[in-house]
C-alpha cells in the first residue's frame, strides 16, 4: 500500500493537469510513480523536465534503459525494475541483456564500461577513483557521456528513492530486486 497518496489525473487542474496530459499523450496512461510525484506540481515539473532533457542526450535509448536497470537493481527498486524491464524490451533489449544490465554487464565493451562506471558512481556516491575514470576513458567513454551517465544515475536514484519511500504500487508486470533471471549469456 502506498505511503503517499496517488493523484488521480481525472481530478487535477491547472499545471498538474497540463503536465499529466503530456504524460498521458506520451505513454497512454499515467504510471503510479508519476501519480505519486504529482502531489507536488513543482516536483512533477522538475522530474518531467529532467527526464525529458536526458532523452535528448548522446546516450541511445537502449543504454539509458540499461543504466536505469543497473541503478534500480543497486537501489532495490521493484517499481523501477518492473517499469524499465517493459521499456527496455520496447527499446529492443533481450531478456538476457536485461538480466545482464541488472548486474552492470553488457556484451558490448563500451556499454559494459558505461554500466560499470554507473555502478561505481552509485555505490561510491560519486567518489570514483582516477583508475576507474581512466578505465572508462580507455573504453571510449567521452566527457559528454560521463556527464550524462552521472545524470542518469541521479535520475534513477531520484525515482528509486521516491518509490522505495512511497512504496508505490507496481503497475507493470512485477520484477523483484535481487531475483535476476535468466542468467546472462555474455560473449567471451
What can be said about this structure in brief?
62% of the residues lie in helices and 0% in strands.
Question: What this model shows, in words?
Answer:
The longest helix is centred in the last third of the chain and has 24 residues, at 143-166. Helices cover 62% and strands 0% of the residues. Helix 4 runs antiparallel to helix 5 (78-90). It folds into two domains: 9-54, no CATH class; 61-166, Up-down Bundle (AhpD-like), CATH 1.20.1290.10. It is globular and about 50 Å long. With 188 residues, it is mainly alpha-helical. The model has no long low-confidence stretch (mean pLDDT 95).
Topology:
Elements: H1 14-27, H2 32-37, H3 41-54, H4 61-74, H5 78-90, H6 95-102, H7 109-123, H8 130-138, H9 143-166
Helix pairs in contact: 3-9, 4-5, 4-6, 4-7, 4-9, 7-8, 7-9
Number of strands: 0
| Average pLDDT rating | 95
**CATH topology title of the largest domain:** AhpD-like
Unreliable runs: none
Quick one: overall form?
globular
Order of H and E elements: HHHHHHHHH
Percent of residues in helices comes to 55-70%
Query: CATH homologous superfamily of the largest domain - what is it?
Result: AhpD-like
CATH class of the largest domain: Mainly Alpha
The major sheet is characterized as:
none
Key features of this structure:
AhpD-like; 2 domains; 62% helix; mainly alpha; globular; 0% strand; 188 residues; 9 helices
Amino acid at each position: 500500500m502506498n505511503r503517499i497518496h496517488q493523484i488521480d489525473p481525472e481530478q487535477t487542474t491547472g499545471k498538474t493537469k497540463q503536465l499529466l496530459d503530456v504524460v498521458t499523450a506520451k505513454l497512454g496512461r499515467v504510471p503510479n510513480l508519476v501519480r505519486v510525484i504529482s502531489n507536488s506540481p513543482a516536483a512533477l515539473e522538475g522530474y518531467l523536465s529532467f527526464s525529458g532533457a536526458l532523452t535528448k542526450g548522446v546516450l541511445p535509448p537502449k543504454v539509458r534503459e540499461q543504466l536505469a536497470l543497473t541503478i534500480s537493481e543497486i537501489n532495490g527498486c521493484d517499481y523501477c525494475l518492473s517499469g524499465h524491464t517493459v521499456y527496455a524490451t520496447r527499446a529492443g533489449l533481450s531478456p538476457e541483456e536485461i538480466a545482464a544490465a541488472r548486474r552492470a554487464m553488457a556484451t558490448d565493451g563500451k556499454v559494459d564500461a558505461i554500466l560499470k562506471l554507473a555502478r561505481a558512481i552509485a555505490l561510491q556516491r560519486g567518489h570514483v577513483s582516477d583508475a576507474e575514470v581512466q578505465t572508462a576513458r580507455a573504453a571510449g567513454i567521452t566527457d559528454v557521456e560521463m556527464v550524462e551517465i552521472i545524470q542518469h544515475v541521479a535520475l534513477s536514484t531520484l525515482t528509486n528513492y521516491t518509490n522505495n519511500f512511497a512504496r508505490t504500487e507496481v503497475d507493470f508486470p512485477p520484477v523483484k530486486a535481487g531475483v535476476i533471471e535468466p542468467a546472462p549469456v555474455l560473449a567471451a
